[in-house]
Amino acid sequence: MVEMTVESVRISLATQQRVVILKAVDQERYLFIWIAHAEAYAIAVELQGATSERPLTHDLLKNVIRELGATLVSVEISDLVDEIFYARLILDVAGRHVEIDSRPSDAIALAVRTKTPIYVDESVLERAGVPIEQSEEPQPPSLLRERDEESEEEDEDDNLSAYRDFINSLDVLDEFGKD
Fold this sequence. Notes:
Layout: E1 2-12, E2 18-24, E3 29-35, H1 37-47, H2 57-67, E4 70-81, E5 84-93, E6 96-102, H3 104-114, E7 118-120, H4 122-128, E8 130-131, H5 149-168, E9 170-172
Parallel strand pairs: 4-7
Antiparallel strand pairs: 1-2, 1-7, 1-9, 2-3, 3-8, 4-5, 5-6
Protein name: BFN domain-containing protein
InterPro entries: BFN_sf, Bi_nuclease_dom
Region (Disordered): 129-160
């Protein structure tokens, strides 16, 4: 498992889809997970330190876990099947290890509220992670076909350009309720 942090929550201005961007703590790799509006809002609210007058759903879950005497130990994004990410909440309930199936977006929203570590299985990162070179610009995963070095560099430049365009089309969710 690779420990990750929430880098940001962004929105595609063209499609209005939201994405949470996780960054590996000790590596230069990112993981992009498309999420729903409500979960994007819940994560962004917490990242910005804002509070709501009444508890949001993830605040409610955090309070229920605490009042039942349990502790959220970690969140694990454990699998990727047919382009769907799977996650688990790892709880300690009076010394008993409990794992609960969760959508990654809900798990992440809960993790940021409880300051709980987020881990991603190495196999998930191998399939969906994006490595970063020293230029600090994300690069897409390498293509599966074999190529000579010169054509590989040209393809990477073309792919990197398309990837930069995509990232630049996203807007950071820094205003709550932004559509």
